[in-house]
Amino acid sequence: MKRSIEHGKRTGFATLQKGGINFDSFPMRLFAKGNGRQWNPADIDLSQDARDFAAMTDDERWWTCSLGAQFMAGEESVTQDLQPFVAAMAAEGRIADEMYLTQFVYEEAKHTEAFRRWFDAVGIIDDLHEYIEPNDHYMQIFTKELPDSLYALGSDPSPRNQIRASVTYNHIVEGTLALTGYFAWQKVCAGRGILPGMQQIIKHIGDDERRHMAWGTFTCRRHVAADDSLWEAVDERMQELLVPAMGVVTETFDQYEGDVPPFDVDMNELAEYAMDKVGRRLSAIESARGANVRTIDLDASPEVLEERFHTEDEAQLAAVS
Ligand SMILES: [Fe+2]
Ligand SMILES: [Fe+2]
Fold it and tell me: Signal peptide location in the record (predicted)?
């Protein structure tokens, strides 16, 4: 008899059935990889960061706090807003995805912890809302687009809503905003030889985020392979969000109006970096059109793509440090 493991309809258990769980499936491989790469934010020494932060100019300190506050509030948001996706996987009876997403949520919580520890270590304990609230695009993405598209899964976890949620969460918030911001910041810190603790934090977060991104690409791929009309849903959500996402970045630069921002951060370079990655991930999703859904479940290409991005980043970082 066919047993159900869907939430609310359970007649059996995935682990008890013949063959058990497929450890070769894409989400189980990500899960095992993540289990092997645990790190503890409390182990990172932030004493040099406190000295480097104290030695910065006021402008640089403002910029650093602004970037850190955006990252920290972002990590807190994604910790909360991923939870409906875990429930959506349970409702679909996809135990491997459900298991992987529990690790994913935990890692976001750990990223949140790492930033809060960093701010405490450099002596910033005042309210930080002033750094994000004037940024309308930031507020639109993190207090509206992200939670709305994720919590829509609660009443309707359809493939279309999963795609809208994944594009918003994985491809815009993680892929366009977080990974781009982290890379730019890593480059500044490595180039100047400052904030070694923050550099370590970002290295670990980047490692976790590569698995998160790979899962997002995988999830869009499996839906697009199963129903070709859903490719349009990917494209549509992307078009809706690209302008506000780029707005998050440009608003941070607006106040410098032609002046060079602290640390010589180059906005155009940042935008190019983001667009290059978004374009290549979209191609990876598009390549799933017409593919056999079974092969998608075992296909490691979304992970390979993220590893390739990593190798490219490493080469750029080595060149500046
Ligand atoms: Fe994160
Ligand atoms: Fe993430």
Answer: none
